[in-house]
Specification:
2 copies of one chain form a homodimer. By secondary structure, chain A is α+β, with helices and mostly antiparallel strands. Chain A is about 55% helix and about 10% strand. Chain A contains 20 helices and 11 strands. A 5-stranded mixed barrel of chain A has the order 4-5-11-7-6. A two-stranded antiparallel ribbon of chain A has the order 1-2. In chain A, helix 1 crosses helix 2, helix 2 runs parallel beside helix 4 and helix 17 packs antiparallel against helix 19. Chain A starts with 7 loop residues before the first helix and ends in a 7-residue tail after the last helix. Chains A and B meet through helix 8, helix 9, helix 10, helix 11 and helix 12 of A and helix 8, helix 9, helix 10, helix 11 and helix 12 of B.
Chain lengths: ~600, ~600
């Protein structure tokens, strides 16, 4: 069975050596002293390794069951959920007013990565609740907040997000679920929603569904969509539970992975719902939390990659097979461990450099969300909005690839379910799809975010990279060669791609959109390149300062050099593809596919 | 449920317009007239679409079961297997002497792609039998051939290959299964083998296991391994079945995919076995058929990609979601079909250009195997040996990626099992692992095949590409620009990589092996680039000759242009990685991963 060890030291390095959290000037960050964050991360790590990780394969094997309208979660999930609630983990970054601990989103992200790495399907129950609670926090009336948030912050009640219908996922303007206004100001919600993660289960007394629906007589299409609070069990004015609402589970989907999470078809049959936010502004309300939600999915890409990588390393060290081509390394054994072989190392370095770079990218993104929310920093908000599709799309595409590589290290033992490596790929696969499929992320990036606010944010990004390069070059020849020069080249490729879009996208938008997936990937590489440069520099500084654990920092530098030499140059390929334009992409009539 | 349509027209194009089969001068190819191959392919296609494809998801959902030592295949498998046997398909390319039809391996490959595309798990039962029969054909005594082959060619009895043991897969020298010589010339085989595809089932009267084992007292390691025929049921001298042999199924593995195939733990307990080939030369005997076996696995990569692609195209045409950015294309519908969106097309073109290019590569490879076997053509044998790891590794890595892309087109509907797209990725995943994991293919290519016969074969490959370019340039400006120039650039990259290996691999073999995976991929791209140039040229010729179906050939040209512009340039990235050498790959101590 796989194991998981929380990367506390690595996270501490990013928080304190790279992001310099306590001096970052973001409200609340002054509390994030190294000793404090270490204590929180150690504690979370223990729960993840000891409690959630062992339940990961149980969830995969048992899945959720629906009998007589009741959904049962896998053995051990409820007890573990109780323990997580008792620890107060779900409310870590929620307001104290509603029972939370008001910690920065940054710390929630670090802890979230661990939870997700140890048991993605399990963690989604609280993840969805967090998302729903955040939407109520942002758009609810004081009454709604008081009524729902204390129970949701504690996860006594969980939450869901209901967007997709059988005939529409991305294009929600086609939605058919109806909301009929009632005299008391409530609505009767009727329709079917599909793919509802954590849609029903036996781990909470109530489930607060957030449901998109169209108010009868409202505008057509996406402009007529509103958001509603639809409790599974009606909540009385005194907060006690009343009668069951008209919400039922049609079925549980059979899926490729995340079996431990109940993905439900939800039927709303004149269910009582309450408008959340403004009439016909449902999309805006639902998408307020989009940066966080998508960062949370990007995090799943990194977390599954890390969990899979840790086990691949173990296997590569244990499994004796063949001999090193440069001479026997394990003379007392019948063969050398896999890890002596260059192509095994190539794969492990791909995984390691992606995971650590991706983690830094996520945590950096979280600081921008904190700056936006806690200090109303418009530039940070603009920049993280630009980067959100990159965080989501690039980190889940690559995260999935890394789980496939980790599985490959096991050979045939990776294909059978016994070792758990198949589960990592099957679970990681969903992150490329939900919360906006990665093609939609690429479209959002190129079709919308690049031009947002007159292109201000992408220009700010390039300016930031340029300044970073300027401020950090010329001090160390090796650092310039190994980190600065590759970053400069990759950033230049990215700018050239943006320039191509500007020059050609005006004539024909397909010239930009045909390159959107490549652009998202090259943007991701540049961001990870920037992260590795920053981590490399921080490591050099630590070594120059006489850090006691020199090996840790030297390993960081070596891993960064690998990324810069072997992964970052992919930007040139993406640029070539982009510059080939849309003609070859769009040449065929649909009938000729 | 997915559908599958056999690509008969596309195969006919490759066989007759590109490979010019009837005039290729390979013994037996003169029979392969277009009308004849069309009839065979149409007939095979019908069985695949109507009989095997509908059983594909049944196999996935039911899997195989083991009860009281008896393995049961999924509902419908046995009846379908009987029908396939009756049609004589298993013996298509086997000698007439043993009941086969003596068709070229080329035709068997085309038919095999269809079988595999419609139902990989099912097709493996006959695929393994074919491999075992081929080994007996090559190494058996006349008595052994007469005893086993007629029943195996017809699939009345099936076959297996037993290599892997719990502690060794790639490194078979560590093998523990023992063979004790008996006075009658037979052996008692004792040991455990794992991951035995088609290891046991209820579709044949007998199963002929080919088992690698060490004869007691023989040389240590791989030099002491011999190959044995171990029937599940002993065969009397008159050909009738005798008592059960000491062979039993320990368990059936739970796997990520190919659930319809029984992957067994096989226990040999003093089972009676008969030496096949020479004592201690088991590896040689087992690997005689390696080029074919690995080409067969490469074929699975292409076949799963094609089946998944066909369904992704259907979905992209049917599913209405969003509007084309260049203007509404389906004004009477609520939205445009997915296929209007550039990134959907990008993905479909990736899939289409890979599948058709990969198919041409496979069929070209099959002609070399025929030339080697039927005309004793040493150059063809050398070239296909060089290309075999590329065919296996590149086509299964990419084939898997394409199934993931096809699944992605379906969004959330691709993640649930209902639509069958998950099965394509789960089934395709195994092909990257078995018959030598792809890292081992890359090692074989760089560590062994490049230098084989003094590097003669790789030089012949480059010479061939050079001659092709020379003979086909300067005639058509557009063809030169779209096909010849990209091929020239990619081939130059590949040569530069080979040069890097030569110059640096001598000093330190890690400099070559750290780039082996990249080299395998760039070699694959160059081969597909060559195939696309040949297909493009054939299409131009057909159009110039006034071909009636101009759209077919124009579509080929457009698909080829896509590959050359968007896929082939990956060679530059692989070269950059290779030229970065082994230092960043090998930098870390194992303890620091």
């Amino acid at each position: 069975m796989p194991r998981y060890t929380a990367p506390v030291k690595d996270m501490q390095f990013v928080l304190h050596d790279v992001l310099n959290t306590t001096t970052a000037g973001i409200p609340g960050y002054d509390e994030l002293e190294p000793e404090f964050t270490a204590a929180v991360l150690e504690e979370a790590g223990k729960i993840c390794s000891d409690l959630l990780q062992p339940l990961n394969s149980v969830g995969d094997q048992e899945g959720c069951t629906l009998e007589n309208g009741i959904v049962r979660t896998p053995t051990g999930f409820k007890a573990a959920f109780d323990q997580v609630k008792e620890g107060g983990w779900p409310g870590l970054d929620m307001p104290e007013q509603y029972g939370g601990q008001n910690m920065p989103y940054l710390l929630g992200t670090a802890v979230g990565e661990m939870f997700s790495a140890s048991n993605q399907a399990f963690t989604m129950y609280q993840g969805l609740t967090h998302g729903a609670a955040s939407a109520i926090l942002a758009h609810g009336t004081e009454e709604q907040k008081d009524k729902y948030l204390p129970k949701m912050v504690s996860c006594e009640w969980t939450g869901t997000m209901n967007l997709t219908e059988p005939h529409c996922g991305t294009d929600l303007g086609l939605m058919r679920t109806k909301a009929a206004p009632q005299e008391d100001g409530s609505y009767k919600i009727t329709g079917q929603k599909i793919f509802i993660s954590a849609g029903d289960h036996d781990m909470a007394d109530n489930i607060i569904h957030l449901v998109l629906a169209k108010i009868e007589g409202g505008p057509a299409g996406i402009k007529g969509v509103s958001l509603f609070i639809v409790p599974k069990v009606n909540v009385n004015d005194d907060g006690s539970l009343g009668a069951r609402n008209g919400v039922s589970v049609g079925s549980i989907e059979e899926k490729m992975g995340i079996h431990g999470n109940s993905t439900c078809v939800m039927n709303y049959d004149e269910a009582t719902g309450y408008l959340l936010g403004d009439e016909h502004k449902g999309m805006r309300a639902m998408f307020t939390m989009m940066n966080e939600a998508r960062l949370g999915v990007g995090m799943q890409g990194v977390s599954q990659a890390d969990a899979a990588y840790q086990n691949a390393v173990d296997y590569a060290k244990d499994r004796l097979q063949g001999r090193a081509v440069t001479g026997v390394e394990n003379p007392d054994g019948p063969a050398d461990p896999l890890i002596v072989h260059p192509d095994i190392r190539r794969s492990l370095m791909d995984q390691k450099s992606f995971t650590e770079g991706g983690r830094a990218f996520l945590l950096w993104g979280a600081t921008m969300i904190d700056a936006a929310h806690r200090a109303n920093d418009k530039d940070a908000d603009g920049l993280v909005s630009l980067l959100t599709p990159v965080i989501k799309g690039f980190l889940t595409d690559k995260g999935y690839d890394m789980t496939v590589q980790a599985q490959q290290i096991y050979g045939g033992h990776g294909y059978i379910e016994e070792h758990g490596m198949s589960q990592y790929t099957r679970d990681a696969r969903i992150a490329m799809i939900y919360e906006g499929a990665n093609g939609v992320q690429a479209l959002d990036l190129v079709g919308r975010k690049l031009a947002q606010d007159g292109g201000k944010h992408v220009m700010a990004f390039f300016e930031m990279v340029k300044n970073y390069i300027k401020e950090n070059s010329g001090q160390d020849e090796a650092f310039d060669r190994d980190f600065i020069e590759p970053l400069k080249a990759a950033s230049k490729d990215l700018q050239a791609a943006g320039m191509y879009f500007m020059q050609n996208g005006m004539k024909n938008p397909n010239h930009a959109l045909a390159g959107s997936n490549d652009f998202m990937h090259m943007f991701g590489h540049v961001c990870l390149g920037l992260m590795w440069a920053r981590m490399g520099k921080a490591s050099l500084d630590a070594l120059a300062g006489g850090a006691s654990d020199a090996t840790f920092y030297e390993t960081k530098l070596a891993t960064g050099r690998y990324y810069m030499a072997r992964q970052l140059p992919a930007t040139a390929m993406h640029l070539t593809r982009i510059q080939s334009g849309a003609d070859t992409v769009m040449a065929l009539d649909a009938a000729n596919f």
